[in-house]
Amino acid sequence: MPDVKLVNISKRYGKGKIIAADKVNLEIKDGEYFTILGPSGCGKSTILKIIAGIVKPDEGEVYVGGKLINEIPIEERRIAMVFQNILLFPHMNVEENIGFAPRVKGIERERRVRIVEEIVAMLKLTLRSTAFPDELSMGAQQKVSLARAIASETNLFLFDEPLSALDSRVRLELRYELRRLVKELGVTAIHVTHDQEEAMSISDRIAIMKRGRIIEVGSPVELYLGPRTIFTAHFLGKMNFMEGTAKELLNGECIVELPGGIKIKTRIKNRFTRERVVLAIRPEFIKISQTINKKYSNIIEGEIVEKFYTGSYIYYKLKLENGVEIFSLTEAEKAYKPGDKIYASFPPEYIILFKYPEEGLEKELSLE
Amino acid sequence: MIDIKLVNVTKRFEAITAVDNMSLEIRRGELFTILGPTGAGKTTTLKLIAGLLNPDEGEIYFDGKLVNDLPPEERDVGFVFQGYALFPHMTVWENVTYGPLVRGMDPEEVERIGKEILSKVHLLERADSYPRELSGGMQQRVALARALASGSKLLLLDEPLSALDARLREELRFELRNIVKETGATAIQVTHDKYEALQLSDRIAILRKGKVMQVDTPVNLFTKPNSVFVANFICDMNFLEGIVKKVSEDGSIVELRGGPLVKTLDKTHRVGERVVVAVRFENVKIKSGETKREYGIYGRIERISFLGPFIRIEVILENGEEISVKLPATLGYKFELRDRVTIYFEPAETIVYSYPREGLAEELIVE
Fold first, then answer.
1. At A174, is the pLDDT very low, low, confident or very high (cuts 50, 70, 90)?
2. What residue in B sits closest to A136 (Cα-Cα)?
3. Distance to chain B for A352, nearest Cα, Å
4. Residues A290 and A221 both lie in one domain
5. Domain stops at, among A194, A210, A234
């Protein structure tokens, strides 16, 4: 069964100057939809290529189904790959492209036709099977390459940014299709992307990668709500970060002092004492109102600086009384305008604290 | 800062009409976005304005002056087109400051503008790099910075953020509007990303097969899309087929396929007419369990996707149709796969369209 295990995998390029993978350890379970998420150049595609056998690691072991496969050549690994750049045979029609692997395997014509028909039905492909790739839209072409991967009857799928070249609407549609297929077929999938929403919406678990290292692994909800690192918190979606100092404890819960002497209650117990910290809270958890609402705690006065309309929700840029600028995400019905005075409340249960990074906050927030 | 006018512009490529009798007016200083699916004619429109293509028919005016015969270099346009490369033998800094220097701008002023714009696209540290040393996303940001620094009165931006990682694109989206506004130029942006369009634009034109479907402000376009196609493109929208059952003073009742009833405020359609009821994902109300309520529809949860701030739930209704619901994540955690639920809509949050002549499926094709 295709569980995948990487043990201390390292890979350097350019005479050792570029570290694409730095002692990477990962365990991917059988039947899991697993995503490696990170910015361009973080090494995520290299990991995929090492699993596929396209790239050899400098160090470390790759196990599939408990078997060491380092020395097994690419064609014997029984792994299907789908890339961002769609690679269909241009001189073959849809049916021939999908039926390519069964034909190479010597499966007789009648059964081949049945396999192709089944896959076409499964993918709800509504195209002519005699059409050639260049007659199809990008989305349809990518569906055909997916169909071709399925026809190879392997049980480990590697997806390297399979949706990145597509129109945003088509991309959304295909996202769900990918997950549905993987789950229906009962196969293991490893998906590489830089798109955090894509990763969160399709994955069982996500590994966050930065500069050749795995930063954190967890389920989408775990990583989004309880990130253990500033980078994860920042990369998985919009997050407000404020520098502060951990002060005294109240019933064992940490109180943080922000610039301007503002004190903020948290629900974080006994982890910080009298040290510099970074306080983080997501825009959707900040409540804003024009009068003080006694139900709320951690209220700070501020002003609307800017609004960004996104349909049913609006992002507001707020300037707090201590000069700090943050974002809130609010339903569009309660519309404020720049210049409006407001009260922003920070529910303690949604506040996350991090140790102040050694190299400074700005460096930690770099997305490249 | 100039205004632009397109009058009955048509552009054909052999058998394909890329731009079809298009008329558009773009106001002075406006940040105008052209939004539409691949192949709608967005980039062609931009290239016609830039002068990189000539229209087969129609006129293009800058500030009331016909520019059809004016070559691109005399149109004073700063642009970012996909595939139009940076000067490879110049550093990032030289690329960005080339325009202002050629214009004869004061060197101190050039220095200030270069620094300001490069820091806004997060590339000041790479000022001494050559384009080949940068990633695709960085090169695109240099191209954007070069256009912004050019001092041109018209900026044409073809998917200016498309080569960027999703997360960085999101970040820059918040800044791009301010950067463009500070240049004082009129700007026309092409994108296929609705959030980019909604967040950045003063007005948006939605294109389909070379034709303008609707031009309006983001708020108006989002709240009053004039057709199924526009609604599908700009909103996350459910579309349900039905027949008008009853029309009264306070609206109408539509019977969906298989019998469920929907109450709407619409009075523009007649009894017996075939219609499409549209409801935004985020306006669908969802309750646990099958609870009796007027105009409630039962269903079963088929899929749940976590999107960060939101959770998206797909429900198979009792009539077999699928409907999507978008909830703030904090309200969505309690739902689980295969849960039975009750769905309903607020009448004020439904939009009723005539059934499209070529069928609903055809209207919803986005590629």
1. confident
2. B367
3. 16
4. no
5. A234
A249 and A227 part of one domain? no
CATH number where A80 lies:
3.40.50.300
8 Å CB contact of B308 and A236: yes
B43 vs A contacts (CB less than 8 Å): none
Average pLDDT of the residues of chain A:
91
Q: Express each pLDDT in B51-62 by its tens digit.
A: 999 999 999 999
Say if A366 falls within a structural domain. no
Predicted confidence band of residue B347 (pLDDT cuts 50, 70, 90) = very high
Nearest CA in chain A to B312: A201
Residues of A in contact with B137 (CB under 8 A): 40
Last residue of a domain, one of A204, A234, A264: A234
Same domain, A191 and A325: no
Which residue of chain B is at minimal alpha-carbon distance from A169? B366
Instruction: Answer yes or no: do A220 and A273 share one domain.
Output: no
> Which residues in chain A touch residue B351, judged by CB atoms under 8 angstroms apart?
none
Domain interval for residue A331: 238-361
- pTM of structure: 0.90
Q: ipTM of this model?
A: 0.86
- Could you tell me how many CB contacts below 8 A there are between chain A and chain B? 104
Q: Which residue has the higher pLDDT, A255 or A101?
A: A255
Neighbours of A341 (CB within 10 A): 11
Structural domains of chain B sorted by starting position, each given as residue range(s) with its CATH number in brackets: 4-223 (3.40.50.300), 239-363 (2.40.50.100)
Pair (A90, A148) in one structural domain: yes
- Look at A138 and B328 and tell me if their CB atoms are within 8 Å: no
CA distance B89 to chain A (A): 23
Total number of domains constituting chain A: 2
Share of chain B above pLDDT 70, in %: 99
Q: Which residue of A has its CA nearest to B177?
A: A308
Q: Say if residue A56 is in the same domain as residue A134.
A: yes
Which residue(s) pair with B32 in the sheet?
A: B188, B203
Strand partners, A11: A21
A367 in any annotated domain: no
d(C-alpha A334, C-alpha A287), whole Å: 11
Look at B192 and A168 and tell me if their CB atoms are within 8 Å.
Answer: yes
The angle at the Cα of A258, spanning A257 to A263, to the nearest 5 degrees, equals 45
A153 and A11 share one domain:
yes
Give the whole-angstrom CA distance, residue A94 versus residue A105.
18
Please tell me which of the candidates A40, A200, A368 has its beta carbon nearest to residue B308. A200
Same domain flag for A244 and A305 = yes
Q: Which residues in chain B touch residue A139, judged by CB atoms under 8 angstroms apart?
A: 367
